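I'd like us to work through together how a protein chain folds, taking it slowly. We need material for that, and I hope you will provide a protein of your own picking. Go ahead whenever you are ready, and we will take it from there:
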Amino acid sequence: MLQRILLPRKGEPHDVRMLYLIEAEQNKERLTWQDRVTVTVPAGAEASFQTYFNAFPASYWRRWSQLEHVLLRMHVAGQASIEVYRSKIDGTRVAVAGELVTDDVAEFTIPLSHFEDGGWLWFDVTAETATTLTEAGWYADRAPGPQIMPDGTEVGPFDKRVTVGIPTFNRPHDAVAALQALGEDPLVDAAIDAVIMPDQGNQHPADEPGYDAAVAHFGERFHEFRQGNLGGSGGYSRIMYEALGEGAAGAPESPFILYMDDDIAIEPESILRAVQVGRYARTPIIVGGQMLNLQERSQLRTMGEVVQRHDFMWGEAPHSTYDHDFAKYPLGFTGHDGDEKDPDAKNSRDLHRRIDVDYNGWWMCMFPRVVSEQIGQPLPLFIKWDDTEYSLRAGKAGFPTVTWPGVAIWHMAWADKDDAIDWQAYFHLRNRLIVAALNHDGPVDGIITSLRKSTFKHLMCMEYSTLAIQIESMKDFLAGPDHLFDILESSLPRIAAIRKNYSDAVVVPSAADLPPASGAPGVPTKDIGGRLAKIKKVSWLLKGLKHSLSKEDPRHHETPQVNLSPSEARWFSLSRLDGATVTTAGNNGVAYRKRDRELAERLLKETWALQKEIGERFADLRESYRAAQPQLVSRESWRKIFE
């Protein structure tokens, strides 16, 4: 079994059910299911499994696996027509096979030859009588064979076994929920060799209701480690360290190590699918899970990402799409007639094209043991860019990363966080520069231009605390690689202390706790669209620059001019104000931003000088970071930290 046909959990709303099955609008009765793998289709009803979790991503299997065919198999109790389809790269549907089945096993053997650059497989059901489908799924026609390493040697074949690691920091409820989810499906549970949970906080899962039962379920397979707050890289590095048998856990030598965040909701089947992908791969690959939006659960946040070479910044992979809502635009929706005249028209065509990526986030990511043994541990970066760097390093060693459709978790979307301007901005910039030094071989000009553009945006938005900690990040990058382990645990407290000195970093519970806004007539708070948007914004930019160069009015430091939501807090609004509150992305308070021309000038001068120094010294820094990399990712270096 490569991929089971799954039904939604009981009680899921309609939009979430659309990730699993689509019931025809003309059906007089709904489909029913008592468990997640057995479904009854009423007589006369129709259903399609052309959905995110149940369609088969055939183009990925063709590109990365050992298989030339895939089998669709199910037990049919009753009489129903089973029709199998595939899609082309543009989403166009093509009939593959079909038959009327009566109380028998339906099986179809489908070649993967027509899926070079894209395409899915799926089936539809039309019930003549009430029909129950069991054991439905996509199967391999043979056991996995050996895999070819980059040096031409063979490894494997590998067993269906995995060690799952979940680092946690002050999310005891979420951590326990993740443990419970891992144990709820017998097939998933049977594949798990060990569960490793580094606990880095002061609110412990062990004190949470349900923890004891969840841990008892896994018995000797469960290993908890309490350690200082070493960030995501420290938590995930501990998992890899223990899973490779370097520590005290004595974990079994699983052929695969799977990372998961603690603040997620998981589809447990995704673990089995990732393991099967890893087992059937032609060469060892890192298998990434996609991110669904925890707040809008029918929404696929991202299909896959790359590092843009011109400025060494994250970006969407070619042909990918963000925030795709399957409840509004199912996998089979190719658009309406006349959409070609509307450049903003939505459809699902891009989801049928195979996406190639540079890396995958560690919200869910699986590593073959042979890869981790060869390339080492994560870098000591605390958070941000550690996942990117690991995949880039693996790619250089001949082990690509693949973000796999239908393997997914639900996670809070980035749009619901302020991580580009809060304390995490320090790690965003410092670690981006470190990873660029290790991997970027081209000119540094694009990176410096990107940094300067970002600097002016922060100034116009009165985000002075962000600039202050970015100054620290550049200083730490320029200091070289030798101190990275030394500041692994101390950077966050240092940055938090700096931010306390800036009003834009202080969250006030509500704008109602401040004087009523005095008003700012003529200041735009809504973006403009259309082909002439950039031209229209030129005047806004000139007015914003003129205002930013003038002396601020201190009255607006006591009484804000306006109260802005996150979507309204844009450069063209804030650059023409002296004081404004901005609601946090989490909607749990406001920050009072106060324009200070003297402070802005000082921050700009220091930032500009550091950016200039980075540009001038980047070639030498590149050499020093690359020379230090083997030591930074060695298990011996991490052993000293853990012990």
